[in-house]
């Protein structure tokens, strides 16, 4: 009995993949979290665009016609924002020549004519329907 014991085997090395599994799991969770954040921010900013149209609608509704020159510029600016709809674009193209009498001049009439005001009301009504 001078030698080693022959019935006891040496320790076996067990492969350990826990670090690899952990890194893959962390990457997978990171991708899921980034995807969810992307979807959340995309919805947030797309809703913001719609809300800006509502703000612009409110501003075009509250145009002060006591100052015809400033009002003509505001209607031109805000009408251009909404002119992506075909009906709005048609009414907007009809009101533009009427508003030019109040723009680009040093002295403008102090009272806006009735035809321009009716066209403005129609424009606001059509915009209100589309938003």
Could you name the key traits of this structure?
mainly alpha, rod-shaped, 131 residues, 69% helix
Give the helices and strands, then pairings:
Blueprint: H1 18-61, H2 68-82, H3 86-99, H4 114-130
Helix pairs in contact: 1-2, 2-3, 3-4
Description of the structure:
This protein is mainly alpha-helical and 131 residues long. The termini are far apart. It has helices at residues 18-61, 68-82, 86-99, 114-130. Helix content is 69%, strand content 0%. The protein contains four helices and no strands. α1 (18-61) runs antiparallel to α2 (68-82) and α2 (68-82) packs antiparallel against α3 (86-99). It has a domain at 47-130. It is rod-shaped, with a radius of gyration of 35 Å.
Poorly predicted regions are none
Q: What class would the helix/strand composition place it in?
A: mainly alpha
**In total, how many beta strands?**
0
What average pLDDT do the residues reach? 89
Brief description of this entry?
This protein has 131 residues and is an all-alpha fold. It is 69% helix and 0% strand. It has a domain at 47-130.
